[in-house]
Amino acid sequence: MSDFENTNDTFLADWLAGNLSDEQLRGLVSATDFEAYQTLRSSLDSYTVSSPDMAQNYAAVKAKRIVANTPKEVKTLPLYRYFTVAAAIVLIFGLYQLFAFSNTVETGFGKTAAITLDDDSHVSLNARSQLSYPALFKYNRTLKLTGEAFFEVEKGSTFTVETSQGEVQVLGTKFNVISRPDFFEVVCFEGKVKVSSNKKSAILVPGDAIRFCKNQPEMWVENNFVQPLWLTGESAFRNVPLQYVINQLQQQYNYKVSYPEAYKNVRFTGSFTNTNLATALQSVCIPMNLKFTTDSENIIISE
Asked: 36-46 burial, b for 16+ CB within 10 Å, e for fewer?
């Protein structure tokens, strides 16, 4: 180990501080160590630490605080743009009210409903039926119907009833519409009606009736009534396949009905009451030589 490593550190500190002369240090260390100490002192003398510029540092810190506390610029839209956005919102809302079928009326088993529309037209909705129409109906006289309804239309712009089976268009009239799966029937009681279904169309005048049964059109003249009988509590049928009569019976009484498959397409002409189940079953079964039994939820019709 060298003499330099074994020397007490206090004399080195005294020498660097000027409390010990070179000659005194030379007498304490070897020539090699003395030379090494002189090199060390020369290096320290050439290395200076500058005093901090407090004014400059304070100015820099103050500038950073000003930037941090300065509110960010908020971009604002010109006033005319606000009016443009507001007008667009109003327009979108208006179009929605005009074209969206946001009003819906639905009836349950054996129930009916009377609706007065914004244009003072009246709709009577039969059992198990649904009617939808826009909030601004008087500006867009279009409705969607599932089931059966009688319409008394005030004169005005074109009045359209859309169904899954076809479409009815009028200006002012009274008519009845039935729309069930594979069954579409329209009877005109007053005015003139245009009926379209499956790329076929017909114009009806008072007393005319048309039916599309599985897309096959049938027309006849109905002169016996001024309004559909169901409005007075009676379901009436003219040469209708029995399956649709049974379907109407279910809509009125909320019973599940089973009957012989062979009678599905047998035609029925007649009516049944909507207020007494036993009487209604007799009205359907007796003319067709059929029998029936009932329990709390089911009706079984047999030969």
From this structure: ebeeeeeeeee
